[in-house]
Design goal:
By secondary structure, this protein is an alpha/beta fold. The protein has 10 helices and 9 strands. Helix 4 links the parallel strand 6 and strand 7. The longest helix has 20 residues. The radius of gyration is 20 Å and the shape is globular.
């Protein structure tokens, strides 16, 4: 059982391997974990520190087999309620728990979040799958979770596209590239398609631009006052929460180009507008903005930390709704923006993995 693992922003495959140590130690010998590095160097994730004089070269993708040792760290398993997407405006410093002396390089799968940047990260992932696959499962933490969700949603979109005249295949007839997915403390997914939600951006009125003058730090009242359709308010309110939280928490470098200048000088689209002329503002994927028949069809496990920033937990829970109902398992662990580490939390995750593997092998899609 081969699982491809995608790390978070400002970390690496080697760091994720360390984070997942307790989880991997509970695996049997039939599991293999493969770690893919992002393409781009970036600032260290919050909470990291390199030893003085550290120098490094970028390591290749890593494969490890679990040992038979176990790690005993009893924890509490008190559940928490699902939090509202619009949580407290206060956002504390968010730290990814990867150790005080994690060594670089510190990497990201995409430098920004425009459709072109997301497409580039998907191509990086697909090239690795083509070269090193097949894989049975896909695991993503934080930014890696976002990339995993985007990849799986894009696969669903591709599979649901009308077949060519020369093809006899029907909608959603292809076998998914993964049998199951494990999504850990993810941020939201972003679309690589410039036309996704483009009408919400290219029909902004001068009043809308004024309301969005402080984006992504606008008050809720500004979003609610945006012009119709209602999906415009959903898009900007959700994207504002994601970008604002990520900037304050260190999940986006301060100098990242987010395409915000477009909001102050919007250009109305015409029938001749090409994708190259559409704004580069990130195309956040919200379940209400997707066609109802476009949902990730393989079993997915979604895990959050009870001590994580509420807005980040809300993002993770929101992404459960881009998956087919009945094919989702939702867990929480005692930590923050981290992976499960305590024995009880790890065993709970493995219980969910066994369910997902069983459903995936049955070909439930």
């Amino acid at each position: 059982m081969r699982i491809l693992c995608l790390h978070g922003y400002g970390t690496s495959g080697a760091i994720l391997k360390n984070q997942l140590d307790a989880f991997i130690r509970q695996a049997d010998a039939s599991y293999e974990f493969v770690f893919l590095d992002g393409e781009y160097e970036c600032p260290k994730a919050q909470g990291t520190a390199s030893p003085p004089g550290n120098s490094y070269s970028r390591p290749p993708a890593q494969r490890i087999q679990p040992s038979q040792n176990t790690l005993c760290m009893p924890t509490s398993t008190i559940p928490i309620p699902i939090l509202s997407l619009l949580s407290s405006p206060y956002t504390p410093l968010i730290r990814i728990c990867i150790g005080n002396f994690a060594t670089g390089p510190f990497l990201a799968f995409n430098r920004a979040f425009s459709p072109a940047d997301i497409q580039s990260s998907l191509e990086h992932l697909q090239a690795f799958i083509d070269d090193e696959g097949p894989f049975d499962g896909l695991l993503g933490f934080s930014q890696g979770g976002s990339l995993a969700l985007t990849y799986l949603l894009q696969e669903t979109l591709d599979a649901s596209s009308p077949p060519s005249p020369s093809s006899s295949s029907s909608s959603l007839s292809t076998t998914p590239p993964f049998k199951f997915a494990i999504i850990l403390s993810t941020i939201v997914a972003f679309s690589p398609d410039p036309s996704f939600c483009a009408p919400l951006l290219t029909t902004l009125s001068p009043a809308d631009s004024a309301l969005l003058s402080d984006f992504p730090h606008c008050p809720t009242s500004a979003y609610k006052a945006l012009s119709a359709p209602p999906s415009r308010a959903i898009f900007f309110e959700s994207l504002g929460l994601v970008l604002g939280t990520s900037l304050r928490g260190g999940f986006i470098a301060p100098d990242t180009d987010l395409g915000l200048e477009y909001l102050q000088t919007p250009t109305l689209s015409t029938p001749n507008t090409s994708n190259d002329d559409l704004p580069t503002l990130p195309r956040l994927i919200h379940p209400s903005l997707l066609p109802p028949d476009i949902r990730i069809r393989i079993p997915t496990i979604h895990v959050t930390g009870r001590k994580d920033e509420p807005a980040l937990v809300a993002m993770s829970r929101l992404m459960e709704e881009v998956c087919v109902k009945g094919m989702v398992r939702s867990l929480s662990h005692e930590g923050g923006h981290d992976v499960p580490r305590g024995l009880r939390d790890v065993k709970a995750l493995w219980g969910a993995v066994e369910w997902a593997v069983g459903e995936g092998l049955r070909g439930v899609w």
